[in-house]
Amino acid sequence: MDAIRDGDIDPAVLAGKRIAILGYGNQGRAQALNLKDSGIDVVVGLRDGSPSHDRAVADGIATASLAEAASSANVVMLLAPDEALAAIYREVEPSIREGAALGFSHGLAIRFGFIVPRSDLDIFMVAPKGPGTALRSLYLDGKGMVALYAVEQDANGNAKAIALAYGQALGCGRAGILASSFAEECEADLFNEQAVVWGAVPEILIAGFDTLVEAGVSEEVAYMECVGELKLIAELIEARGIAGMREAISNTAELGAVIGGPRIVDDGVRARMREILAEVRAGRFSDLLRDEEASGYPRLKVARDKARQLNVEQARKKLIG
């Protein structure tokens, strides 16, 4: 798969056009600011009384109601939380111009039918592969973040060109923009969130910490060993890859990894990973997400409170003060 870079992209398709960003959270703010600094006319659509209004104004970004922002724009980007997008789209759909482009930074709403867009709209995705804060800081440093792009509906023949020009304006063309699909991006992202980086890794850290403390190791030492070194391995992998990371550590650490890693991540773990991916593709997680939002996020509230009470969190507080 070849990465598309700035030199391969024609920005003319967005020249003189206005982009409406609906949502001013982590991604919305970063994307709006990067677009603005790239010379794009940007307006942020917000609900009345939104706490993000003052921040957008302080950032020098024009604001309007959701419907007003959508009606004034050639490209409308839906950057609110996934579970909120359907309601936002229903609200603004009558205001979106005929033949406009509707953009996303995550494939879930389209992949699982939260939104069925009008047939006259170009539907595209540009998904920076990292948090908005990093997208913004990389842009300011003259760098970029790798992104995926996809076209779901090319009603007017401009969807791919708009997606690439949009990614370029975010600074992603500096690093590379890769072709994907709404389904591929969504399914891979949801799988990673549950089975790898955001789901499995924290649980392994907690289990390792608890194992050492139960065996009599002090909480501070257990924290530094099991949690504190995570940043080091992440930086090594980013810089050198997994093979290069192993070559950079001591023989003791490398041999321990070779012996211990496969005992933890065994065939049973891999089988459960495949189960999670199958559930994602079947739409079970998207159904849970809808239910969670509709009932006021009870599961997330309990999980957040439980996480704050973990012994590993108390150890962290002791170390950092």
UniProtKB/TrEMBL annotation:
Gene3D superfamilies given in the database record: 6.10.240.10, NAD(P)-binding Rossmann-like Domain (3.40.50.720)
Reactions this protein catalyses: (2R)-2,3-dihydroxy-3-methylbutanoate + NADP(+) = (2S)-2-acetolactate + NADPH + H(+)
InterPro entries reported for this sequence: 6-PGluconate_DH-like_C_sf, KARI, KARI_C, KARI_N, KARI_prok, NAD(P)-bd_dom_sf
Record's keyword terms, sorted: Amino-acid biosynthesis, Branched-chain amino acid biosynthesis, Magnesium, Metal-binding, Oxidoreductase
Co-factor(s): Mg(2+)
Domain KARI C-terminal knotted: 181-321
Pfam family, one: KARI_C
Keyword Magnesium: yes
Chain residues that bind Mg(2+) 2: D189, E225, E229
Binding residue positions for substrate: S250
Pathway: Amino-acid biosynthesis; L-valine biosynthesis; L-valine from pyruvate: step 2/4; Amino-acid biosynthesis; L-isoleucine biosynthesis; L-isoleucine from 2-oxobutanoate: step 2/4
Chain ranges of the KARI N-terminal Rossmann domain: 1-180
SUPFAM superfamilies documented for this protein: 6-phosphogluconate dehydrogenase C-terminal domain-like, NAD(P)-binding Rossmann-fold domains
Binding site for Mg(2+) 1: D189, E193
Gene Ontology terms for molecular function: ketol-acid reductoisomerase activity
EC category name: oxidoreductase
TM helices/strands, residue ranges: none
Known EC number: 1.1.1.86
NCBIfam families for the chain: ilvC, PRK05479.1
PANTHER family in UniProt: KETOL-ACID REDUCTOISOMERASE, MITOCHONDRIAL (PTHR21371)
UniProt similarity note: Belongs to the ketol-acid reductoisomerase family.
Function summary: Involved in the biosynthesis of branched-chain amino acids (BCAA). Catalyzes an alkyl-migration followed by a ketol-acid reduction of (S)-2-acetolactate (S2AL) to yield (R)-2,3-dihydroxy-isovalerate. In the isomerase reaction, S2AL is rearranged via a Mg-dependent methyl migration to produce 3-hydroxy-3-methyl-2-ketobutyrate (HMKB). In the reductase reaction, this 2-ketoacid undergoes a metal-dependent reduction by NADPH to yield (R)-2,3-dihydroxy-isovalerate.
Name this polypeptide is given: Ketol-acid reductoisomerase
Native source organism of the sequence: Sphingomonas caseinilyticus
